């Protein structure tokens, strides 16, 4: 009887605990990221405040403003932003509930021109 209880607990642990592990960025297959467009509302020394555009329904359901830190912008080769600039952002789908809201994991940020086309990452907007 003790053996059966031990094996039942061991089987439960083997099946349950791996399902609780969070996904790591490296574990995500291509295509698991979500994309949305946003407009820069305010730029300050530590980053910028974004407003998701109407096509970002999933983001707008959680937040009307997002904070994007300077480190994320620098990692993506973006500097010199100004209010009104358009961005295309790939993220993991998780939005941290703060105000302004923050994205849990940002995979990429692309600066868009007035036609919605991505500009090269080394472009500095002036």
Keywords:
126 residues, alpha+beta, OB fold (Dihydrolipoamide Acetyltransferase, E2P), 7-stranded mixed sheet, 3 helices, elongated
Topology, number of strands? 7
Annotated CATH architecture of the domain at 34-112: Beta Barrel
Termini Cα gap: 75 Å
What does the largest sheet look like? Answer: 7 strands, mixed
Helix content: 10-25%
Radius of gyration: 20 Å
What's the helix count? Answer: 3
What is the 3D form?
elongated
The sequence of SSEs as H and E is HEEHEHEEEE
Poorly predicted spans: 17-29, 122-126
Q: How are the strands of the largest sheet arranged?
A: 5-6-3-2-1-4-7
Q: Which structural class should the secondary elements be placed in?
A: alpha+beta
In percent terms, what proportion of residues is strand? 25-35%
Mean pLDDT: 77
Q: What is the fold named in CATH at topology level of the domain at 34-112?
A: OB fold (Dihydrolipoamide Acetyltransferase, E2P)
- Just give the CATH class of the domain at 34-112: Mainly Beta
């Amino acid at each position: 009887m003790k053996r059966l209880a031990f094996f039942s607990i061991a089987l439960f642990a083997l099946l349950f605990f791996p399902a609780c592990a969070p996904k790591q960025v490296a574990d995500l297959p291509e295509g698991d990221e979500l994309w949305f467009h946003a407009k820069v509302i305010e730029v300050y020394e530590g980053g910028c405040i974004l407003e998701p555009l109407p096509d970002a329904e999933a983001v707008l359901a959680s937040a009307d403003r997002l904070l994007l830190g300077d480190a994320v912008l620098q990692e993506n080769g973006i500097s010199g932003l100004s209010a009104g600039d358009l961005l295309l952002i790939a993220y993991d789908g998780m939005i941290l509930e703060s105000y302004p809201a923050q994205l849990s994991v940002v995979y990429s940020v692309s600066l868009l021109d007035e036609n919605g086309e991505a500009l090269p990452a080394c472009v500095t907007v002036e």
